[in-house]
From TrEMBL, chains A, B:
It holds the Pfam family MarR. Residues 7-139 form the HTH marR-type domain. PROSITE patterns: HTH_MARR_2 (PS50995). One of its GO terms (biological process) is response to stress. The lineage of its organism: Bacteria, Pseudomonadati, Pseudomonadota, Gammaproteobacteria, Oceanospirillales. GO terms for molecular function: DNA-binding transcription factor activity. This is MarR family transcriptional regulator.
DNA sequence: ATCACTATGTTGTTAGTAACAACTATAATG
DNA sequence: CATTATAGTTGTTACTAACAACATAGTGAT
């Protein structure tokens, strides 16, 4: 199999995985109080700590304007907190409120236990292998984006 | 590592991969004459042969109403063809026009050669491994959806 | 010190994504 | 023939997301 053929198979396989995951995520997230993008913002803020708007946008591969609106909806629902940076009046630090954290934990547990059921018949060493490879692919893709 | 921990890591890794892929796909597809969803419809129609609307919707994990509109836009741009089934006046068979096929081939080649560059530093056997595992995960997820 | 430049966020606008419900028209069934 | 089921379309609503224009706040050079 040539590299091009390999690339084609991989592209196809990843695409299929993406569809299924997205479909499932919508299902699990939207019955709570937030949309998929909002949930992803919560996740990013939890995992990458307090962030400025532009930094959050970069992490999520979104435009700052889009991010601003996503954050705004979370603000109105009181899931995130805006703190003005005293050293720079333009900048804001975004972090989760306790209720934001609680909501994310609930959704996260749902999603993870679903993922766990999903892989219940896949041998652990196979999952570990997949993990490594998927990460390698992500890194390769990310490096490519930068250039 | 427990199954839950494994599930958590996997969920995170797949999510990252999805973001990067989506970001890139938008970039590569939207500079041509179609949107991401439209391109995916073209792809599905090429790969799964002529389809009815409902069948196309099922393949794409979309509602038939959403699919109807996606198809409609492709119809207006003359990339797909609607044929009424003589045996069932309600049903339509959807297929690509020559220009639809040509457009898809162009985009597809772009995407695949990008994917190929992406994996140029990843050893072939690693890609093959990832391929198998990603497919296994997709199947597991799909089975889970059905239930 | 001031004027130009840059960076941070927000708002206006536009287009694409996607579901649910209601509807029309056509089969299939009893 | 009436009832029910199926195939697609249309109305409506909400979310996703970018680009451009903007206000405001720091940064630097003269």
């Amino acid at each position: 199999m040539s590299r091009l053929e390999r690339a084609e198979e991989l592209y196809e396989a990843v695409n299929q995985l993406i569809r299924v995951h997205q479909f499932r995520d919508r299902d699990y997230i939207c019955c709570h109080d937030v949309s998929v993008a909002q949930c992803y913002a919560l996740e990013t803020l939890i995992k990458r700590g307090p962030l400025r708007l532009q930094a959050l946008a970069d992490e999520m591969y979104l435009d700052k304007s889009t991010t601003s609106r996503v954050v705004d909806s979370l603000l109105r629902k009181q899931y995130v907190l805006k703190l003005h940076d005293p050293d720079d009046q333009r900048a804001i630090q975004l972090s989760l409120t306790p209720s934001g954290e609680a909501l994310y934990q609930t959704i996260h547990q749902d999603l993870i236990s679903e993922e766990a059921s999903m892989i219940k018949d896949v041998p652990p060493e196979v999952v570990d292998g997949a993990l490594t490879l998927i990460r390698q692919l992500t890194i390769a893709a990310r490096n490519r984006l930068g250039s």
